[in-house]
Design goal:
The complex is a heterodimer.
Chain A: E1 5-7, E2 10-13, E3 19-24, E4 31-38, E5 42-50, E6 53-56, E7 65-69, E8 75-79, E9 88-95, E10 104-105, E11 109-113
Parallel strand pairs in A: 2-11
Antiparallel strand pairs in A: 1-3, 3-8, 4-5, 4-9, 5-6, 7-8, 9-10, 9-11
Chain B: E1 3-6, E2 11-14, E3 19-21, E4 23-26, E5 32-38, E6 44-50, E7 56-59, E8 62-65, E9 75-77, E10 86-93, E11 100-101, E12 105-110
The chains are: A mainly beta, B mainly beta.
């Protein structure tokens, strides 16, 4: 079956522009996670959705970052007024409900802010 | 807060050598422990997991044992192959639902 998909796979933008990153989780997975993978910072948790609500936003690095999820499926991560330090690979994962259920990762979106 | 520390790479081995990648953790609760692998050009994949003390996770010849007394989850493989070349991440899930990752260890296996 289809895995987690993310789009775009690569995004190059200019400093100060807004970007939207999309994640399509595995059908039936109620939990959705965003992580960021960057040089020097490793893999960082950003935000977690259970259904359409986000009980844990603790990893969002600033108020320029926001995310939403609609219909318990697709999620969009938006970064406003991008900065060069936002350059990273943004990973999305989904899982069945429950802490111990395996998280399946998408291929990521590589964001480069010039 | 929770944290995971793993040995820095790169680790370079010859084919059929024995592999150990060390991982230790700090957690406030009673975490579940994971190893994820990222092959070149691919996304993160779960390699193995353990949910309680003394559990041994295993997959594809890799093993790791959950050691509560030493707060460790070291990854081992008896005989590595060139195809095992990848970046390996140790991770935990504690009270929250998100994964806390170590910094990753790059493994390079030479023929």
């Amino acid at each position: 079956g289809a895995g987690v998909s993310q789009s775009p796979s690569n995004k190059v933008t200019e400093k100060g522009k807004d970007v939207e990153l999309r994640c399509d989780p595995i059908s039936g997975h109620t939990a959705l996670y965003w992580y960021r993978q960057s040089l020097g910072q490793g893999l960082e948790f950003l935000i977690y959705f259970q259904g359409n609500s986000a009980p844990d936003k603790s990893g969002l690095p600033s108020d320029r970052f926001s995310a939403e999820r609609t219909g318990g499926s697709v999620s969009t991560l938006t970064i406003q007024r991008t900065q060069q330090e936002d350059s990273a690979v943004y990973l999305c994962a989904s899982s069945l409900q429950g802490v111990l259920n395996e998280q399946f990762f998408g291929p990521g979106t590589r964001l480069t802010v010039l | 807060g929770d944290s995971v520390t793993q040995m820095e790479g790169p680790v370079t081995l010859s084919e059929e050598a024995f592999l150990t990648i060390n991982c230790t953790y700090t957690a406030t609760g009673y975490p579940s422990l994971f190893w994820y692998v990222q092959y070149p050009g691919e996304g993160l994949q779960l390699l193995l997991k353990a949910t309680k003390a003394d559990d041994k996770g295993s997959n594809k010849g890799f093993e790791a044992t959950y050691r509560k007394e030493t707060t460790s989850f070291h990854l081992e493989k008896g005989s590595v192959q060139v195809s095992d070349s990848a970046v390996y991440f140790c991770a935990l899930v504690d009270a929250g639902n998100m994964l806390t990752f170590g910094g990753g260890t790059r493994l390079m296996v030479k023929p």
